[in-house]
Design goal:
Distance between the termini: 60 Å
Number of strands: 5
CATH topology of the largest domain: Rossmann fold
Strand order of the largest sheet: 2-1-3-4-5
Helix content: 55-70%
CATH architecture of the largest domain: 3-Layer(aba) Sandwich
Order of helices and strands: HHHHHHHHHHEHEHEHEHEHH
Oligomer: single chain
Number of domains: 2
């Protein structure tokens, strides 16, 4: 299963004089050149266009094997696109897809483009975005690994120390999950800072747990921190929308946010809400795993929060 969109969206502002002066992206070059390619070069082009995310980061040897051609044929293919060689092509492709990945994380691109094309108004767009979120949650639940889930809940409930890691849009989920776990008595901390990640990991011991969240599975800081944790004999868990990724490789247990919406290029956007819902559910299961004794503590916490947070009856008086 591919957890990333098959092709990046059109660049905003791609028309007009500014768009004409801008250098075409790697995949735009490839699409423009494809009709003129034949033989082995055409097979390489089709391999890249079919799943550029699978090609991203692959060596020239791997791409040659995927396309069923020689390495020389791959080199000739890159030259046909105007690149000096495979290295320049690979860098351009990674940059191209990296831009698309950031956009897909923050925006349901296909749904918005359809709305702009007159296929629905604001209410229709809101309904379709919410339907996408629901679909992603349903897909995640249907494809959740029960053994992995049981193990993660058990370890979260019993680990002497739990460290949560996440950067970018994963950081707020770590913050929320940390609060939920702390509320039921789990000794937990979280960080989004790369240096703090390493500092926290350096203080952990075997028996502790590091839990990282990364939708793409390629968040450098989180992957490096998990790798460091494994070197220290600390168990690692990853929550990702891409289990066949670096974070999946360095996680002892992996939970997957799954979505059939990948074919529409919107899985990365939908993964955020599904991930939040999954973490909320896991926190509830952790509370029960701890024997349900945390209920009284939660009641006391709720009463204290109400005293501090609720407005007094005379709040309008200004006293």
């Amino acid at each position: 299963m591919t957890e990333t969109p098959t092709t990046p969206p059109p660049e905003p502002g791609g028309s007009g004089e500014a768009g004409a002066r801008s250098e075409p992206s790697c995949l735009d070059r490839l699409r423009q050149a494809r009709p003129e390619l034949s033989g082995a070069r055409a097979r390489v082009a089709d391999t890249v266009l079919t799943d550029p995310w699978k090609v991203r980061g692959a060596s020239i040897q791997v791409l040659a094997q995927m396309a069923g051609v020689s390495e020389n044929a791959v080199s000739r293919f890159t030259h046909a696109l105007g690149y000096s060689g495979y290295r320049e092509f690979a860098q351009a492709l990674s940059l191209d897809l990296g831009k698309a990945l950031g956009l897909y994380h923050s925006h349901p691109v296909e749904l918005v483009l359809e709305s702009r094309a007159g296929l629905g108004g604001p209410l229709d767009l809101v309904q379709r975005v919410m339907a996408l979120e629901v679909e992603c949650m349903q897909d995640t639940l249907a494809n959740l690994s029960e053994p992995a889930l049981r193990h993660v809940v058990h370890r979260l409930a019993g680990a002497p120390a739990v460290l949560l890691l996440g950067t970018g849009t994963a950081a707020p989920l770590c913050h929320m999950f940390s609060y939920r776990l702390a509320s039921v008595g789990v000794p937990v901390t979280w960080t989004a800072d790369p240096m703090m990640m390493l500092a926290h990991v350096s203080r952990l011991s075997p028996g502790d747990l590091v839990f990282a969240i990364s939708y793409s599975g390629r968040s450098r800081d989180s992957v490096q921190a998990l790798t460091y944790a494994k070197e220290r004999g600390v168990e690692t868990v990853g929550l990702t929308a891409n289990p066949q990724s670096p974070i999946g490789d360095v996680s002892d247990a992996s939970l997957t946010i799954f979505s059939e919406a990948v074919s529409r290029g919107t899985a990365q956007f939908g993964a955020r809400v599904a991930g939040l819902a999954l973490l909320e559910a896991i926190a509830t299961a952790v509370s029960e795993e701890k024997g349900g004794g945390s209920t009284t503590g939660l009641e006391d916490l709720g009463a204290t929060q109400a005293r501090f947070n609720d407005l007094p009856p005379d709040w309008r008086s200004g006293s």
